[in-house]
Amino acid sequence: MSEGTADDVLLEARGLTKMFGSFTAVENVDFAVQRGELFGFLGPNGAGKSSTMRMIGAVSPATSGTLRVFGLDPAADGPRIRARLGVVPQEDQLDQELTVQENLWVYGRYFGLSRAQVKERTAGLLEFAQLSERAKDRVEPLSGGMKRRLTIARSLISSPELLLLDEPTTGLDPQARHLLWDRLFRLKRQGVTIILTTHYMDEAEQLCDRLVVMDHGRIVAEGSPRSLIEQYSTREVLELRFDAHDHAEYAGKLAGIGERVEVLPDRLLVYTEDGDAAAAAVHSRGLAPLSSLVRRSTLEDVFLHLTGRTLVD
């Protein structure tokens, strides 16, 4: 956890566990979120990220362990916690028959805001989400990116202290994803504490101050994106593709090149501090890959090292 006083901790979990019958979705996890940071849960589908978010959002009770949000217990103080949260679920839950601005008006009234307050905040949020020109349009024909921006705008109508986003950019094209990233950066600069889940490594690297990597309901690593890469990977990775049905047969021929070699179905990954030197060493052994690529290490390399599989497995 990053340095800070106890007053800076907005959320803390210790031994948090969630079970559904005999299935353990989240197993004995510990983490804390500081006020004002953007904290992430990174992992594949089924890792336990969404189950954790639902416990944080005070809509799904923990099976065991302790969880405090704003210093409150979700089991006893759910309504008080939810009143201070903004939530962006995986699936948009907008009213398709209403206009863009009407979706914000109706949602704002749920929080007891006056009509004047709702209309004032709606205007500002539509500008923030770059939807002002679509204010009177119905939701149904909007693009996926516009709907996600509207969902985020709606979650902010109550001026929440903590914003929860569950897989916020799944299914969006690259341009829409980057626009959403920009909106989240702006919110963070405004002092909103943000927690998000994602299985996109680049999203976690770009957005998160700190994150935890989850797999099969457990936290397998925690830290800033850069510190995790430095701890669990090398500076560069050499990707090699050979004309072979099974790349494993080439792994032994690369022994001693780089720090380690990972075998994937369609390529070999050579972890090294100098990718160009590693590529030269490969060719000096008389090996002729169909393609070779030197790139920097990423969080997916971290996940592969920790779990033996990629984030998209």
UniProtKB/TrEMBL annotation:
Species this chain originates from: Antribacter soli
Domain ABC transporter: 11-241
GO molecular function annotation: ATP binding; ATP hydrolysis activity
Top-rank taxon, per record: Bacteria
Protein name, per record: ATP-binding cassette domain-containing protein
One GO term of the biological process aspect: response to antibiotic
One GO CC term on file: plasma membrane
Signal peptide residue numbers: none
Membrane topology qualifier: Peripheral membrane protein
Main location: membrane
Family: Belongs to the ABC transporter superfamily.
Keywords, alphabetical: Antibiotic resistance, ATP-binding, Cell membrane, Membrane, Nucleotide-binding, Translocase, Transport
InterPro entries named in the record: AAA+_ATPase, ABC_transporter-like_ATP-bd, ABC_transporter-like_CS, ABC_transporter_ATP-binding, P-loop_NTPase
Location within or outside the cell: Cell membrane
PANTHER family with a match to the protein in the record: ABC TRANSPORTER ATP-BINDING PROTEIN (PTHR42711), ABC TRANSPORTER ATP-BINDING PROTEIN NATA (PTHR42711:SF5)
